[in-house]
Amino acid sequence: MFSKSFVFLLIVLVFETKCDKEKVFDSSDCDLGSLVEEIASYDKRVKKIIDYTLSGPFKGKTYDELAKFVDKFGARPSGTLDLEQSIDYMIDLFHNEGLHEVITEEVEVPLWERGAEVLTMYEPRKKKMEILGLGKSVKTPLNGLTAEVVVISNFTQLEETPDEKIKGKIVLYVPIFTTYSETVVYRTQGAAKASAKGAVASLVRSIAPFSIDSPHTGSQTYSDGVEPIPAAAITLEDADLITRLYNRGETVKVQLIMYSTLETRVSRNTLVDLKGKESPEKLVIVSGHIDSWDVGQGAMDDGGGIFVSWAAPVILNRLNLIPRRTIRAILWTAEELGLIGVHAYKKAHEDESHNINFIMESDEGTFAPLGLVANGNHKTRCIVAEVLKLFQSINASTLIESDSPGSDISIFTGTGIPGASLHNDNGQYFWFHHTEGDTMNVETTENLDLGAAFWTAVAYIIADLSIDIPR
Amino acid sequence: MFSKSFVFLLIVLVFETKCDKEKVFDSSDCDLGSLVEEIASYDKRVKKIIDYTLSGPFKGKTYDELAKFVDKFGARPSGTLDLEQSIDYMIDLFHNEGLHEVITEEVEVPLWERGAEVLTMYEPRKKKMEILGLGKSVKTPLNGLTAEVVVISNFTQLEETPDEKIKGKIVLYVPIFTTYSETVVYRTQGAAKASAKGAVASLVRSIAPFSIDSPHTGSQTYSDGVEPIPAAAITLEDADLITRLYNRGETVKVQLIMYSTLETRVSRNTLVDLKGKESPEKLVIVSGHIDSWDVGQGAMDDGGGIFVSWAAPVILNRLNLIPRRTIRAILWTAEELGLIGVHAYKKAHEDESHNINFIMESDEGTFAPLGLVANGNHKTRCIVAEVLKLFQSINASTLIESDSPGSDISIFTGTGIPGASLHNDNGQYFWFHHTEGDTMNVETTENLDLGAAFWTAVAYIIADLSIDIPR
């Protein structure tokens, strides 16, 4: 019997480790027969989409619309009015493009609102430190918590430290970033484990390879039977400063003040169909999440993702390229606090899940597209690899294999439904991820044009092929 | 007749444009005769210094001492007790190494202390924006200033804008960073020029090529006969957000609250002599400034500079390599608010300025050393280029020519006294400069070992050569 918290923890774990075990697909033993010729025959339509987007009437449009959107609403946290108004705005944007098959589906979501957050080191000297509370963290007493810091490098060290050395202290985890999936466990599970050892609060070195004094927030989860304690991320710089002081034998004492509220609200998933002309019940889904963290503008995470997914039906509609199957653009809600929107969608659409031909998601940046990260059986991967050959002119022909690509869509791809996430040149993604630096300054017109063209053309071909993508 | 402000403005201009007109020196027509052989004969001593610092007892020492220093004191703004205590600490550090020829010289310096600084955009939507007031900025009224923003790209555009469009508004300068010297004028002169047109405050897009929502402070100066108005830097991200909103025809209204105090205090330049064994009156100066901005730790600007300059006499003393001339390490005070320490030194030591054989400064980062940026006549440059040939093993043999290298020392080098600043791999210098990101995270053990070895060996050779560096 699993508790609700444990299920949530599992969700978070699946969600946060999605990038593991990826390798470039080797298509040398693919044998697709006449399908090769069929796929090659899409070359003119691909070129038409690329030209329209990179040098035609759509040039710069994805960037401009994304900028107008994120400039107007800024951050769009789950449960806020800003998020709901931004959903209404997107609906209008689809309508304005003549796309009227738009529905929304309600979802109960958490509204975790950050209040004042202040971290001050008092010993060995006074220094105010930037922090960001982690998602759903409990607050401190109004006067804050003042306690000594214990620096912990990893969970093994925590386990091996006697409880009395942790009790009443604030644990600071200082894992050095390797990969996100490997390091993020100190953010997602740190507070629960520290509390189990008697800590009064949990701090974590931001899960990032680079910083300019820029803390990174993100989700975390408490465990059943363990007192929930305040949890926050601090900057790489301050974490390393405290570590150096601590390693020199100094007593490091800090005051932590955090305030927040947690309520429940109703949000909406947004579904937009460009109906297929032959098998409208069959779906190729393109998607991203419209909610964001409450810092920055959510331009990268995941404004870019929703705007390339907006562009796909819009460009196809403008070019009157209507595929055999339906293209459904979905703007998931409440991804950041635990894939809540997509779970509601999956439940509500259980009866049509056999109709999902292919499910796509862009949620790891919209830097220059390089190809796809896809799951599926061997034949599926052969087909996707063959489709990607049509994108050599824009250097987006790489197929990376993964068992459960994507973040939201991993709950489909993880069960064998074929799908893909956007593989893009996102080496700096975690520099900005979940920080105040997630703004339009991370985006470029060129990359969004490339991403929109690629996303649109891939979705079109897969939705139009003579055969379904095999499961 | 020049007013005091005007002189200060000139100082700032000289200081801020120091990087202009640099090119790699061409040594093909150098003819140094027997000096070539003499310089080459230092190869064993150079190797000894490099080995001692990179793999011997001094390995890691420069980084460790710098870390202990900046971790203990943090930022060290001009006029503060922290700065004075950090000076005392450095004196002890020299004494502990058996260097007792240490004196300090008092200097009147400004103490500009930043209070609360809050910038909130109210229209077209509410957003709190990070700011950093600029040096010596006046404060706003207690309730702040609420006004519309006028976005200005350059001074020509400002001049061409009718006064009535500026009057009562807040000017935001949004120059795109090209080079520091080219772009920084909007920070140093922006408020004065905006005030002359009737603006009530002046904001500037941070003078930086990159940001993670990280504002950059720095000096600025008012003009005589013009009302001083509050002046602050905002982040690239927010400047670009406001610019996009403004260019879409939106009215952008902000509230700016700034508080600060300006007083006068006494600080000290610190002079440490490793006396020359033949001509102790003749000086080779190595230097950096001990004050910093009030953000970050001042580890890069200019902690690294003072610690490689600390290392030079320390390493030579440890290795008993005593040159003919005196090596003087100087820790300048109050560089950031206008080269105040060095001006006082120049005045106090006017009678021995003919004895400055060569003056060196590290104040543009201590990333991997690449060589020197030097002034001087042709023969001087030939000598320096010949000396640099001894550093091919550590890739630090490049000589860049400049008419007035350095920041503090430019008031010497600008008048023809030969000198050099550290040329280093500082392409990311302005990512961190004058921000909260100027911390130990920018520094590495390897780079500081390389920098200390290079700085020490160069100073030694020049101080020991059989001939003076020609003027």
Set down the secondary structure blueprint.
The structure is a homodimer of 471-residue chains.
Chain A: H1 4-16, E1 23-24, H2 35-40, H3 43-54, H4 61-73, H5 81-96, E2 102-123, E3 127-129, E4 131-133, E5 145-152, H6 155-160, H7 163-166, E6 170-173, H8 180-183, H9 185-188, H10 190-196, E7 201-205, E8 231-234, H11 236-247, E9 253-274, E10 279-289, H12 299-318, E11 325-332, H13 340-348, E12 356-361, E13 369-374, H14 378-388, E14 398-401, H15 410-413, E15 419-424, H16 429-432, H17 445-464
Parallel strand pairs in A: 5-6, 6-7, 7-8, 10-11, 10-12, 12-15, 13-14
Antiparallel strand pairs in A: 1-14, 2-3, 2-9, 4-8, 5-9, 9-11, 13-15
Helix pairs in contact in A: 3-17, 4-12, 4-17, 12-17
General description of the model:
The structure is a homodimer of 471-residue chains. Chain A is built from 17 helices and 15 strands. By secondary structure, the first copy, chain A, is an alpha/beta fold. Chain A has 2 domains: 4-101 and 275-464, Aminopeptidase (3-Layer(aba) Sandwich), CATH 3.40.630; 112-261, Glucose Oxidase, domain 1 (3-Layer(bba) Sandwich), CATH 3.50.30. Chain A has a 15-stranded mixed beta sheet that branches. Chain A is elongated, with a radius of gyration of 23 Å. The two termini of chain A are 31 Å apart. The model of chain A is unreliable at 1-20 (pLDDT under 50). The A-B interface holds A 67-68, 71-74, 124-125, 127, 130, 211-214, 236-237, 240-241, 244-245, 248, 296-297, 431-432, 435-437, 439-441 and B 67-68, 71-74, 124-125, 127, 130, 211-214, 236-237, 240-241, 244-245, 248, 296-297, 431-432, 435-437, 439-441. Chains A, B: InterPro entries: CPQ, Peptidase_M28. Chains A, B: It comes from Mythimna separata. Chains A, B: Keywords: Carboxypeptidase, Endoplasmic reticulum, Glycoprotein, Golgi apparatus, Hydrolase, Lysosome, Metal-binding, Metalloprotease, Protease, Secreted, Signal, Zinc, Zymogen.
